[in-house]
Amino acid sequence: MNTIINPPKKDWTQILERPTKTVDDIEGVVNEVFADIQKNGDAAIQKYTQKFDGVSLENNIVSVNEINEAINLVSEELKEAIQLAKENITKFHTAQKTAKVFVETTNGVSCWQEKRPIQKVGLYIPGGTAPLFSTVLMLAIPAQIAGCKEIVLCSPPNKEGKIHPAILYAANLCGVTKIIKVGGIQAIAGYTFGTETIPQVYKIFGPGNQFVTVAKQLSTKHGVAIDMPAGPSELLVVADDSANASYVASDLLSQAEHGADSQVILVSTSKEMITEVEKEIEIQLAKLSRVEIAQKAIQNSKSIFVENDETALELINEYGPEHFIVCTNNNDFYIDNIENAGSVFIGNYTPESAGDYASGTNHTLPTNGFSKSYSGVNLDSFTKSITFQKITKAGIKTIGKSIELMAAAEGLDAHKNAVSIRLKDLK
Amino acid sequence: MNTIINPPKKDWTQILERPTKTVDDIEGVVNEVFADIQKNGDAAIQKYTQKFDGVSLENNIVSVNEINEAINLVSEELKEAIQLAKENITKFHTAQKTAKVFVETTNGVSCWQEKRPIQKVGLYIPGGTAPLFSTVLMLAIPAQIAGCKEIVLCSPPNKEGKIHPAILYAANLCGVTKIIKVGGIQAIAGYTFGTETIPQVYKIFGPGNQFVTVAKQLSTKHGVAIDMPAGPSELLVVADDSANASYVASDLLSQAEHGADSQVILVSTSKEMITEVEKEIEIQLAKLSRVEIAQKAIQNSKSIFVENDETALELINEYGPEHFIVCTNNNDFYIDNIENAGSVFIGNYTPESAGDYASGTNHTLPTNGFSKSYSGVNLDSFTKSITFQKITKAGIKTIGKSIELMAAAEGLDAHKNAVSIRLKDLK
């Protein structure tokens, strides 16, 4: 880690810069795949699955047999772990339901707001070495609680044409209505335009590599919503002498193992803590299976010493971390005043991996500073709010004159007339 | 209007197609302006204001004097109308505040969700013939209620270098912190990169022409959030024999006057009502000041007869109208079952223009079918939710094993280790 002592404010932007790559150079291939799939549907899907995943599938819809096979392949103890996680995620996301908001703003003018589920959602689960079944829980559970009608899941097949059993098990457990073996750009294009087998959806959720990220961004141009823009995962820990250095090191490493471009930052008001954490990182790093990845991420990462909590907070709000761990003598100060963060982990016994799997909070969170404007995935991500209004004769008589005046002042005659024609009848 | 009787379902997509233009051809100019402003800041802003708005401004920040002048120029009766609208909008949006959601998902595992304001927001208000001060109310009021710190407003200057007094009056009344005379692509680029005078913001709100729309979309590539994608305004009315044909006609026309590309649709289970409404449109149209615009929009518009309410509802949900007026004997059926709509207006005395100005609901709504996945602007549009979690020793002992199992199954060693290292100490 690079240690920085008391950086002047003018250097913060540069110090906090994220190791994000530019995406311009892969837009070409994404555009090409989109155009092909829009035109040729499943035939093109099959072609790209062959090309990118190295497998030729006659049928890419996961069958009941495949699901049953997966159920048998997942160990009982993992099933129990998934069950516990599911229960906590369900509790926390169910509690996020909101009642109808009803207000009679003026006598006879009733306004209300109701949330309705997004009818068709598409979840994307990456393939690769780590089968992210936990992300299935994080997306499918709130989708089901929200009441989404179609919950589709796409994930790339491996060389044997299969999806990891834990992903299938979790998808089946959490109410996914259709599972399709398709990955990458082609999956996102399928969700965007619909094909013979992939349903067109209204909103796409889930992580992915740079190709998937750019594809999701392109899908918004075609009228599909996405959960949020994506970037490499990141963690910021603020720790003072009350923290446990080996715990802090373990948390920083758990983030670092995600990818060489992950970013971890330690902010501390204690130079001793920084030194201790750096020592602990060296000790723990050597024992990790993903040591090479974690090492690269750690090399890009920073320990920043600041004089006091106020400066630490200001710097953290400027960064807007995806994950934010607080282990200080002054935790409430950070909790009360944090403006920009995805999810906050408080105290020595709240590792970030708790939120990744089983505490109940969602792990799909805004990276890359997007916590300044975006929420992490939550129940509302799967709904939209609709407003309603009902005005009585008395109501329109009360507010009609104001509407007429404002419409006239905006030069919108017909808007005014829609009120005038009613007021005339009510005279 | 084009009347369509009992269209078969296979034709719905084509019948409901919106008159949206492609935006590809203006991306070039938008990219160019963005690059210039990123590099040259205010100097470039000034250049484009000269080029696009035809005025050279030495200082584009609206002064206290200009605001005082504007306050004097707005008539007392318009001020009163704005005040009434402000009160209703304030009531409805204040009621949308949500309490902290707190759940102890497992003994010793506390999770909660809190909304925090987006610190810096940029509002865009178009210039042109109609001074949209009502949109100032719809954006600045919820921003202020949410607690946004910086609420900036950009609007293009007219040839005299001024912004319409009603816009300045409304902005000052509703807590806008800085008003800048800059419009179009250059305003959005300014919000995206920041210049010497325009602050970089985290989220951009507000309507605009196609250039502004494309610029907003491009800003998302640079990490700025936007309220929603935009398209031409639209209204769908469902009416049966219980409706008043002249009221329905007045509502359709109030939408049609927005622009030649506005779309209005009448769906009815009564052929007589369709005939009457079309007659009424002809009568009322002739008297409008914006007759040419409204006429063009009406030419593109459709009256659709369907056999029953169920078919009507299905068709309406497929369309997902921005504004949806319900005037039938069966209103509750539509209210209960509408899945996709921006804002719903119920009964004979609830003209759409009520929601545009003064009922209290927001008028910044999803067009172009985006109501399938997007909410209209509401209080939450100016906040993001942050999740928090705090786990006790007992808590991590209860859920720790599950986290270890899941992390191991995903091949994420360091995630597992962050829990193991704590559990070991607690044995």
From TrEMBL, chains A, B:
<dbReference type="GO" id="GO:0051287">
    <property type="term" value="F:NAD binding"/>
</dbReference>
<protein>
    <recommendedName>
        <fullName>Histidinol dehydrogenase</fullName>
        <ecNumber>1.1.1.23</ecNumber>
    </recommendedName>
</protein>
<keyword id="KW-0520">NAD</keyword>
<comment type="similarity">
    <text>Belongs to the histidinol dehydrogenase family.</text>
</comment>
<feature type="binding site">
    <location>
        <position position="415"/>
    </location>
    <ligand>
        <name>substrate</name>
    </ligand>
</feature>
<feature type="binding site">
    <location>
        <position position="356"/>
    </location>
    <ligand>
        <name>substrate</name>
    </ligand>
</feature>
<keyword id="KW-0479">Metal-binding</keyword>
<feature type="active site" description="Proton acceptor">
    <location>
        <position position="323"/>
    </location>
</feature>
<feature type="binding site">
    <location>
        <position position="124"/>
    </location>
    <ligand>
        <name>NAD(+)</name>
    </ligand>
</feature>
<keyword id="KW-0560">Oxidoreductase</keyword>
<dbReference type="GO" id="GO:0005829">
    <property type="term" value="C:cytosol"/>
</dbReference>
<feature type="active site" description="Proton acceptor">
    <location>
        <position position="322"/>
    </location>
</feature>
<feature type="binding site">
    <location>
        <position position="186"/>
    </location>
    <ligand>
        <name>NAD(+)</name>
    </ligand>
</feature>
<feature type="binding site">
    <location>
        <position position="209"/>
    </location>
    <ligand>
        <name>NAD(+)</name>
    </ligand>
</feature>
<feature type="binding site">
    <location>
        <position position="323"/>
    </location>
    <ligand>
        <name>substrate</name>
    </ligand>
</feature>
<feature type="binding site">
    <location>
        <position position="258"/>
    </location>
    <ligand>
        <name>substrate</name>
    </ligand>
</feature>
<dbReference type="InterPro" id="IPR016161">
    <property type="entry name" value="Ald_DH/histidinol_DH"/>
</dbReference>
<keyword id="KW-0028">Amino-acid biosynthesis</keyword>
<feature type="binding site">
    <location>
        <position position="415"/>
    </location>
    <ligand>
        <name>Zn(2+)</name>
    </ligand>
</feature>
<keyword id="KW-0368">Histidine biosynthesis</keyword>
<dbReference type="InterPro" id="IPR001692">
    <property type="entry name" value="Histidinol_DH_CS"/>
</dbReference>
<dbReference type="GO" id="GO:0008270">
    <property type="term" value="F:zinc ion binding"/>
</dbReference>
<feature type="binding site">
    <location>
        <position position="410"/>
    </location>
    <ligand>
        <name>substrate</name>
    </ligand>
</feature>
<comment type="function">
    <text>Catalyzes the sequential NAD-dependent oxidations of L-histidinol to L-histidinaldehyde and then to L-histidine.</text>
</comment>
<dbReference type="Pfam" id="PF00815">
    <property type="entry name" value="Histidinol_dh"/>
</dbReference>
<dbReference type="GO" id="GO:0000105">
    <property type="term" value="P:L-histidine biosynthetic process"/>
</dbReference>
<feature type="binding site">
    <location>
        <position position="258"/>
    </location>
    <ligand>
        <name>Zn(2+)</name>
    </ligand>
</feature>
<feature type="binding site">
    <location>
        <position position="356"/>
    </location>
    <ligand>
        <name>Zn(2+)</name>
    </ligand>
</feature>
<comment type="pathway">
    <text>Amino-acid biosynthesis; L-histidine biosynthesis; L-histidine from 5-phospho-alpha-D-ribose 1-diphosphate: step 9/9.</text>
</comment>
<keyword id="KW-0862">Zinc</keyword>
<dbReference type="InterPro" id="IPR022695">
    <property type="entry name" value="Histidinol_DH_monofunct"/>
</dbReference>
<feature type="binding site">
    <location>
        <position position="233"/>
    </location>
    <ligand>
        <name>substrate</name>
    </ligand>
</feature>
<feature type="binding site">
    <location>
        <position position="255"/>
    </location>
    <ligand>
        <name>substrate</name>
    </ligand>
</feature>
<feature type="binding site">
    <location>
        <position position="255"/>
    </location>
    <ligand>
        <name>Zn(2+)</name>
    </ligand>
</feature>
<dbReference type="InterPro" id="IPR012131">
    <property type="entry name" value="Hstdl_DH"/>
</dbReference>
<dbReference type="GO" id="GO:0004399">
    <property type="term" value="F:histidinol dehydrogenase activity"/>
</dbReference>
